[in-house]
Structure formats: structure tokens, C-alpha cells
Amino acid sequence: MNRWASQILRVRSGGQTGADRGALDAARACRVPILGWCPMGGWAEDLPFPPGVRTLYPELMPTPSLDPDDRTRRNVIDSDATLIVRLPGVRSPGSDLTLRVATLHRRPVLVCEGSDVAAVRGWLASLGGPVELNVAGPRESESPGSYSRTRALLTALLTTG
Q: Which of 16, 62, 131, 152 gets the highest tally of CB atoms within 10 A of its CB?
């Protein structure tokens, strides 16, 4: 395990298409534990019926609510820090909510495009120790390529050093 991988104890995300799954798949491939909250029934835009996204990620726990915002809030609050991966100008209500909740609860948050590994490493180092990292960003339908950008970023963070 490299130095940067040891800075990330666990990767938390909600399992939605796009950035969430890119982060979960990168962590899983790098043998970093994954967890997170998903809406009741495991709802995701491509898996709307129970058990939904939990068929892919049984590590995720369903919230008591069908509202995806509940998942978003819980993942921010239950993590040490949040990384939002999105391109400039991309509108994503879920990413906007993630940023608001992190700010409200005074949780460290970084918004990045997904290509600046050095900036993310610097931010992680500034946090002062290993963290449970919540990773968020747009759904694939809101920003095509979100999955691959986020997976590449997390893979670089967890495998190179």
C-alpha cells in the first residue's frame, strides 16, 4: 500500500451511477473498504427496484427514506471529508446538496475536476491523518464520463505514490 492509500481508510459513497460508482469500484479494485448509505430499496437511476444498487454493492446500507437527499446528507455527515468530482459548469442538484451539507456541518470538502491528482493529495495531506472519504459527483446521465473520471482519480490516489 502506498502513502496516499494509507491516508484513505475507507471510501464512502451512495452508489448512484457516475461518480459514486467510479469511487466505489476503484476502492474495491484497490482493496480499500467501501461503505455508504443508499436510498431505501437501493434506488438508483438504472436500478429503481429493490434491492437496487445493493445487488452491486451489498456494503451499502439503505436509509429509512426513499428520498435520495437523505442518503446524501448521511454520507457527508458520517464521513471525515468529502471529495466532489465534477467538471466546471455541470449542473448536479445532488452535488450541490453535498457541498451545502458539508459546508453547513463544517466537514472538509474539495471540489475537483478529476484530473488533478496532486491537488487532491495536497488536500488529503492537509487533513492531518487517515480519513474515511466520502466521494460524490454527478450521475452519469448528468455528466457522461463521470464514472471513468472518478474511477481514474481514485485509482491514481490509491495505487501510485
A: 16
CATH class belonging to 3-159: alpha beta
How remote is the C-alpha of 32 from its chain's centroid? 13
Rg (CA), the chain: 14
Percent over 70 (pLDDT), the chain: 96
Q: Where are the domains of the chain?
A: 3-159
Please give the model's pTM, rounded to 2 decimal places: 0.95
**Cα 113–119–121 angle (5° rounding)?**
120
Q: Is residue 161 within 8 Å of 4, Cβ to Cβ?
A: yes
Q: Which residues of 23-52 are buried (b: 16+ CB within 10 A; e: fewer)?
A: bbbbbeebebebbbbbbbbbbbeebeeeeb
Instruction: Say if residue 4's pLDDT is above 60.
Output: no
Convert the pLDDT of each residue in 84-101 to its tens digit.
999 999 989 999 999 999
The whole-angstrom separation of Cα 118 and Cα 52 is 35
